């Protein structure tokens, strides 16, 4: 899907991020190790793989492949393209495996759940604007609903099978703190910041939920001023950042930049430091120039929020923020491990036939 529809697919269990062509090329070598057995079995040319007898169509793979390429100016070689298709197809296979498991457990997202999520996605637009977005993205409404259903289904399955079974006890938290006490000793003041940025760089791809992107300075200034007005009216900073910020690294997390040491902030961005140092926790700056780190020239505009200012010193275990951070870290780590093991178990229990991989091997062998 294009960026404005990213939310519908954000929680895919083994979603592949866009890979560099170099790393993708490595997969081509791996393809040569695939077993040759079954290469001559009969199947429709439109089917690239089956999962427990359920077909994955060539059109599905091609659509996902084009989504990975996006608007990249660099075209892959035939070998690199096939390697990326193998990667994309593996993702589709994994998703199909998980969807089938969810169906067996009666956890497939209902029509009502899909419609509710679709209504949430359409909320910022008029019906005409939404239809224009669909047309521009070259996707039908059924495509959107399909991805929403898959995402919701996978989330329901993982919540039941993984997240609901993870427990972090007080003993776990205490043990972690005692082993990593130095991590909670700040040697200098830290600023927990969030950012909304808008650039005038036309080539940068949109990275926010709305696919919103300014293409010149006039658009960038108009957009950042509109966002500042919405902030002043009381709208949530994180929500606006997720939907409209053009920061490729922080937009998806509500603009959260994490903790920045005072010395680094002062050295790298003295003007920003001056403005942030005036804020109380929860307040935002005025619109500030966004400076390119290499050229030191303005490339757009930004608004910063001071989430908290953490003075230097040892953080005690009784600090609720310390406990929350430890619990979340332990939960995330366990969840990641269990999900990886769970997906491997599901793959082992499934019968997968990858005709596309077999065809690549067959063609390379002649």
Write the layout of secondary structure elements.
Blueprint: H1 21-31, E1 47-51, E2 54-57, H2 58-69, H3 78-104, H4 111-122, H5 127-137, H6 141-161, H7 170-179, E3 185-186, E4 190-199, H8 217-232, H9 237-244, E5 256-261, H10 262-268, H11 270-276, E6 288-291, E7 298-310, E8 313-314, H12 320-348, E9 352-354, H13 355-364
Antiparallel strand pairs: 1-2, 1-9, 3-8, 4-5, 4-7, 6-7
Can you give keywords for this protein?
366 residues, alpha+beta, Triger factor/SurA peptide-binding fold, Chitinase A, domain 3, four-stranded antiparallel beta sheet, three-stranded antiparallel beta sheet, 13 helices, globular, disordered N terminus
What's this entry about, in short?
The chain is α+β, with helices and mostly antiparallel strands and 366 residues long. Helices cover 49% and strands 13% of the residues.
């Amino acid at each position: 899907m294009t960026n404005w529809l990213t939310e519908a697919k954000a929680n895919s269990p083994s979603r592949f991020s866009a890979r560099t062509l170099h790393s993708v090329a490595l997969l081509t070598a791996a393809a040569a190790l695939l077993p040759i057995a079954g290469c001559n079995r009969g199947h429709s040319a439109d089917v690239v793989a089956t999962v427990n007898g359920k077909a994955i169509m060539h059109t599905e793979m091609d659509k996902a492949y084009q989504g990975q390429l996006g608007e990249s100016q660099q075209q892959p070689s035939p070998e690199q393209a096939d390697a990326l298709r193998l990667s994309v197809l593996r993702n589709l296979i994994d998703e199909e495996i998980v969807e089938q498991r969810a169906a067996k457990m009666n956890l497939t997202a209902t029509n009502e759940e899909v419609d509710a999520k679709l209504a949430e996605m359409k909320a910022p637009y008029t019906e005409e604007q939404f239809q224009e977005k669909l047309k521009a993205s070259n996707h039908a409404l059924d495509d959107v609903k399909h991805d929403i259903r898959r995402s919701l289904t996978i989330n329901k399955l993982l919540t039941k099978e993984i997240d609901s079974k993870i427990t972090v006890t007080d003993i776990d938290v205490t043990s972690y703190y005692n082993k990593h006490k130095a991590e909670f000793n700040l040697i200098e003041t830290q600023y927990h910041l969030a950012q909304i940025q808008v650039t005038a760089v036309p080539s940068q791809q949109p990275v926010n939920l709305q696919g919103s992107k300014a293409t010149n300075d006039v658009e960038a200034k108009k957009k950042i001023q509109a966002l500042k007005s919405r902030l002043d009216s009381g709208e949530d900073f994180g929500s606006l950042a997720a939907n409209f910020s053009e920061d490729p690294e922080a937009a998806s997390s509500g603009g959260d930049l994490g903790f920045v040491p005072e010395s680094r902030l002062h050295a790298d961005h003295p003007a920003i430091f001056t403005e942030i140092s005036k804020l109380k926790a929860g307040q935002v700056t005025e619109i500030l120039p966004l400076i390119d780190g290499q050229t030191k020239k303005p490339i757009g505009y930004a608004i910063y929020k001071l989430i908290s200012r953490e003075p230097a010193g040892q953080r005690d275990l009784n600090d609720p923020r310390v406990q929350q951070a430890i619990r979340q870290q332990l939960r995330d780590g366990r969840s990641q491990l269990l999900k990886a093991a769970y997906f491997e178990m599901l793959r082992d229990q499934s019968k997968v036939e990858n005709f596309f991989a077999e065809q690549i091997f067959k063609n390379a062998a002649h």
